[in-house]
Design a protein that fits this description.
With about 280 residues, the chain is an alpha+beta fold. It has 2 domains: about 100 residues, D-amino Acid Aminotransferase, Chain A, domain 1 (2-Layer Sandwich); about 150 residues, D-amino Acid Aminotransferase, subunit A, domain 2 (D-amino Acid Aminotransferase, Chain A, domain 2, Alpha-Beta Barrel). It is built from 6 helices and 15 strands. Strands 6, 7, 8, 9, 10, 11, 12, 13 and 14 form a 9-stranded mixed β-sheet that branches. The longest helix is centred in the N-terminal third of the chain and has 16 residues.
């Protein structure tokens, strides 16, 4: 199998892209842009290793079965990722879609196509953040799907209103998740993850494991908007990064505790890197 390295983004010398182990054509990329149906996962690669790489592969396999009714060849994905990488730190995105999908036969099981892309390493966001809560529930929140119009539009609305980002709530005013990230709360002795439907982020799973190993309680339970005053601090977790802290949600203020953020980062970084 040979990966073509010739298709690069002008924005980064390390950017590469491959479709099923080869350079994609413009027509194939146009198809993905025109038919917005698929799923993806994003991770940060260092020394050809990733924290939670096995969890990323599990995510891709589960979502492929649900969206396309077929199995994803995980060994093939791993091999194609290996051949695309170089030794530089990079942000890696694996997108699964299907060129065989037909709109008039959506019930059919179809073979998946795998688009792998590398870009410059993910830069953690600066904080602390000011968030606006807005009522919205993503379609199939358990899947990291490529349809992001709704959350990006809400994020834009929050920015127009003077906030940094948006946090989504259910119709019953339960906190669910951020626009493209998970949210956690600290009550002074334990971390609380909202249990409303949301994407089970890989960083969230790794941080949860790291906290438990250190004897720090980490639980999932309903968190309602009118209960936010009961928490000391709040924070976001995203692709391979913990933080920044959250300063406000609407008018509710939280303590910006750098010691807490250091503890969370240490718990996350205690989880081993996995060689791809």
């Amino acid at each position: 199998m040979e990966i073509i390295h010739g298709m690069r983004s002008s924005g980064s010398a390390s950017a590469r892209i491959a479709l099923n182990g080869r350079e994609p054509t413009l027509a194939e990329l146009a198809l993905l842009a025109q038919l917005n149906y698929g799923h993806f996962t994003t991770m940060q690669v260092r020394d050809r290793s990733v924290r939670g790489f096995g969890l990323h592969l599990q995510r891709l396999g589960m979502a492929t079965r649900e969206l396309f009714g077929s199995d994803l060849d995980i060994d093939r994905v791993r091999a194609e990722v290996r051949q695309l990488l170089d030794d530089e730190p990079t942000s890696l995105r694996i997108t699964v879609f299907s060129r065989a999908l037909q709109r008039n036969r959506l019930e059919r099981s179809v073979a998946p196509d795998v688009l792998i892309a590398t870009t410059s390493p993910h830069a953690p966001r600066n904080g602390p953040l000011r968030l606006q809560s807005l009522r919205h529930e993503r379609v199939l929140p358990r899947i990291k799907h490529i349809g992001m119009f709704d959350v990006l539009h809400l994020w834009r609305q929050a920015r127009i209103a003077g906030f940094d980002d948006v946090v989504l709530t259910t119709a019953g005013a339960e906190i669910a998740e951020g626009s493209t990230w998970n949210i956690g709360f600290w009550d002074g002795r334990r971390v609380v993850w909202p249990s409303a439907p949301a994407l089970p982020g890989i960083t969230l799973q790794l941080l949860d494991a790291g906290l438990r190993e250190r004897g720090i309680e980490s639980v999932s339970r309903p968190v309602f908007r009118d209960q936010l005053a009961g928490f000391r601090s709040a924070f976001m977790v995203n692709s391979g990064s913990v933080g920044p802290l959250i300063e406000t949600i609407d008018a509710q203020r939280f303590e910006v505790d750098d010691d807490l953020l250091d503890m969370l980062k240490e718990a996350f970084e205690s989880q081993p890197m996995e060689i791809i």
